[in-house]
Amino acid sequence: MKKQITKRTLAGLTAVLCAAxxxxxxxxxxxxxxxxxxxxxxxxxxxxxxxxxASVYEVATLEEFLAAANAAxxxxxxxxxxxxxxEGSYTINSGSSFTVDFNGNTINFDGxxxxxxxxxxxxxxxxxxxxxxxxxxxxxxxxVNQNVVRFLKVNKGTVELLSGxxxxxxxxxxxxxxxxxxxxxxxxxDLQNDxxxxxxxxxxxxxxxxxxGYYTSRSNVKKVEQDLVEGYEFYxxxxxxxxxGVHKIGxxxxxxxxxxxxxxxxxxxxxxxxxxxxxxxxxxxxxxxDYTVSYAxxxxxxxxxxxxSGIGDYYGTITQAFKIKELPAVDRPEDxxxxxxxxxxxxxxxxxxxxxxxxxxxxxSVGDVGTKEFKATFTPNDTEHYLTLTNVSLSVTxxxxxxxxxxxxxxxxxxxxxxxxxxxxxxYYTDDKGENEVALADTVIPxxxxxxxxxxxxxxxxxxxxxxxVVCEDCGxxxxxxxxxxxxxxxxTYTSAGKTVYTAAVKYKDRTYTDTxxxxxxxxxxxxxxxxxxxxxxxxxxxxxxxxxxxVVAYLNGKWKILARxxxxxxxxxxxxxxxxxxxxVIAKVGGxxxxxxxxxxxxxxxQGDCGILMVGANVDGNSIRVNWxxxxxxxxxxxxxxxxxxxxxFTQVDALSxxxxxxxxxxxxxxxxxxxxxxxxxxxxxxxxxVVEVK
Length: 696
What we know:
Elements: H1 7-20, E1 38-42, E2 49-53, E3 56-59, H2 62-71, E4 77-80, E5 84-86, E6 89-92, E7 97-101, E8 106-109, E9 120-133, E10 140-143, E11 152-161, E12 165-168, E13 173-175, E14 180-184, E15 188-191, E16 200-202, E17 207-210, E18 214-215, E19 232-236, E20 244-248, E21 252-253, E22 258-259, E23 265-266, E24 278-280, E25 283-284, E26 291-296, E27 302-310, E28 314-315, E29 317-325, E30 336-339, E31 355-359, E32 370-380, E33 389-399, E34 402-405, E35 416-417, E36 420-423, E37 428-429, E38 444-445, E39 456-459, E40 466-471, E41 478-490, E42 498-508, E43 511-521, E44 531-534, E45 538-541, E46 547-556, E47 559-566, E48 570-572, E49 581-590, E50 593-595, E51 602-605, E52 615-621, E53 624-629, E54 635-644, E55 647-654, E56 658-661, E57 667-677, E58 680-681, E59 691-695
Parallel strand pairs: 3-4, 4-7, 5-8, 6-9, 7-9, 8-10, 9-11, 10-12, 11-13, 11-14, 12-15, 13-16, 14-17, 15-18, 21-28, 23-29, 30-33
Antiparallel strand pairs: 1-2, 18-20, 19-20, 22-24, 24-25, 26-27, 27-29, 31-32, 32-33, 34-36, 35-38, 36-37, 39-40, 40-41, 41-42, 42-43, 44-45, 45-48, 46-47, 46-49, 49-50, 49-51, 52-53, 53-56, 54-55, 54-57, 57-58, 57-59
């Protein structure tokens, strides 16, 4: 099996997945929620993967817009920085999948005369997939002359309307051929003329798929009820202007979701669009799948607003305010002094008229002599308009101190000494000014006739302190001294344990004693990515924190073999042998090492059984098994059976294309699916189309 993904393959696959409802089209359109899509093209001569990194084209005129749209590659974004006007028809024939972001601006459509005005953008490439959205607020398309027939005319290709405000004349979008597809997932729609056909006009061919949006009464959206995605419905929004909406049956209001507060943002002079974290219970919502977001008042200092509109499983709109603040202009304090042995609480910071400096941790010791860097915070007086500066490095110069050593008479077990002072630089003086230096040996009065044996170390329970003791071999007198303890830590990884090594050192009678203790730090707990199998031979998996690369592996001939490597979170199988079952897993490279944990392995099969059911895979999650299959023509029910004591036993009957078996005891099970056609169950060749799963 060999992974080859070309740009054309990606665009075609994206369109198919979008039509199936299994992959959000916006995710293929470019930069969504701050994540750039990287597309790989394979050269015909060398099959070498050439990366294409998504680009953002900023445009302010029609000419710039058309040039960018026709030059865009897969994953790129065309971002409006100003509004502009379209008079006449203009063709976009790019064959790429890219995004148009109104960014709070409007494409105006105008023309002269009282008849039907043909001012529009003409989409004419079967490989095109253009997603229109608005990360600003209030941006979109507007018919300056209410006789403008339409904004978009799609002859070939795919258009996706995700968000934005569309105020048309007669129509919003028209399709002209079977090669034209339009997906309406969100946005607000109005028509200035009461059009009996509704906002989406199909000229005898083409596909409209409506699964969202908000509509005025003039738009007559219910005229296109046949274009609603199965499982979606119209509902009354309660809004005076956009009174009709479309949402999934069973969708819930997004007003019940929780939006995590947004930290104060830095004023840059440009629009500020922070990412949002939105949760509904334990579920974290995903932008452009569960909601769209636009921003208002998000350039200048003050309060900005994020407008969050539900799509998919959610409907309605909520807002989240956040602050944009300037960085304060303040000088970094200099010439800060400290004495050896002091803490930062002893180091006074200068006063500022516009705010106050403070140490982030005033209890920290300034350490040894020399110039050190410590972290400080500047809090402005006007916190409404200015940011608090944190993690600011300030230099502190530490000076020497002198520690007095009292004079001591020698004994039989220990040396005595004259009175002297130990400087923080390790030198010795007979005064506390550092003027009369003396050698350490000259301070010693030798002990009388005793010798000390091997030192004995004693450590505190937390290894933060240690002392060394020596015993006189003649009289048993014990002498000891507290050691200076330092530590070095090697952090653990997913593949190896770490350790902290504590070293105690003490100088006694011109001799230095050392001892070490080592504390082992267990390896980091690794959680393998969760794999999900999708119809069509694709798997996807959850991300592993800190992962540098992923590898898809298969268990072949008794060994795990790497099929593909990369940074993506999905992979599509090609070239599977019919009738074969494959055990596959996903492993991650973290910290430069592969974590060979295949506990997330799943089993997939590529053969279609006698009754036309394709058992594409079974995912095991704890003690639950989820089974997926494809539809069989003419079938009204499907039966899920398992093999027990030499016979097949029916577990349940469903009319869906998947089933979850819960509370399954640990063990290995053979499972098969059959279809009921014309009242009869197709039960032949169960073993041939069965699959084996293991619950641990």
